[in-house]
């Protein structure tokens, strides 16, 4: 019998980051669907670079400059976050030079694992160890650096075309 995954109840203070995580999972799904639909690599590269600039890069800023400073720099979860951010950053920036299906697949898989790590482990840990006052401070800082809700205005390549 398959074990049911229950949604994680996130604190109000970290909910903005969780919402962006949902969008990150959707980004990875769209890229995978695009590959299945034989979308030209240039379109997938263009979308990935757009998503990097408008969503991932500012999200990384929020986590690295606002959230992570509330734990020791050498904490294994902080180290993992930074290393995975660096790897994702390298993969995306590498796409700017040359996009191929393998790189896109690696990026999607890493992004999925990374988001699940943050949601299932890191955020739960932060909510347990930080006081309500500290979480409120994090939330206030997140509000000072809001993420844009800009939408992709080009072709919705992830939708299968009817023959």
How would you characterize this protein structure?
The structure is a single chain. The longest helix is centred in the last third of the chain and has 29 residues, at 101-129. The protein starts with 14 loop residues before the first helix and ends in a 19-residue tail after the last helix. It has 163 residues and is mainly alpha-helical. Helices cover 69% and strands 0% of the residues. The protein is elongated.
Whole-angstrom Rg: 17 Å
Low-confidence stretches: none
Q: Helical segment tally? A: 5
How many distinct beta strands?
0
The whole-number mean of residue pLDDT values reads 91
Work out the strand percent: under 5%
What oligomeric state do the depicted chains represent?
A: single chain
List the helices and strands and how they pair.
Layout: H1 15-36, H2 41-67, H3 76-97, H4 101-129, H5 132-144
Helix pairs in contact: 1-2, 1-4, 2-3, 3-4
């Amino acid at each position: 019998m398959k074990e049911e995954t229950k949604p994680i109840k996130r604190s109000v203070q970290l909910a903005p980051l969780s919402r962006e995580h949902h969008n990150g999972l959707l980004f990875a799904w769209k890229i995978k669907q695009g590959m299945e639909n034989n979308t030209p690599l240039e379109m997938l590269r263009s979308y990935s670079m757009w998503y990097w600039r408008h969503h991932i890069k500012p999200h990384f800023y929020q986590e690295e400059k606002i959230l992570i400073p509330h734990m020791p720099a050498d904490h294994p979860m902080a180290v993992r976050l930074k290393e995975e951010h660096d790897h994702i950053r390298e993969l995306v920036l590498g796409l700017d030079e040359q996009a191929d299906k393998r790189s896109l697949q690696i990026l999607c898989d890493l992004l999925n694992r990374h988001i699940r790590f943050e949601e299932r482990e890191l955020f739960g840990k932060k909510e347990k160890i930080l006081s309500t006052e500290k979480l409120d401070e994090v939330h206030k800082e997140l509000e000072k650096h809001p993420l844009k809700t800009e939408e992709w205005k080009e072709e919705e390549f992830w939708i299968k075309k009817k023959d």
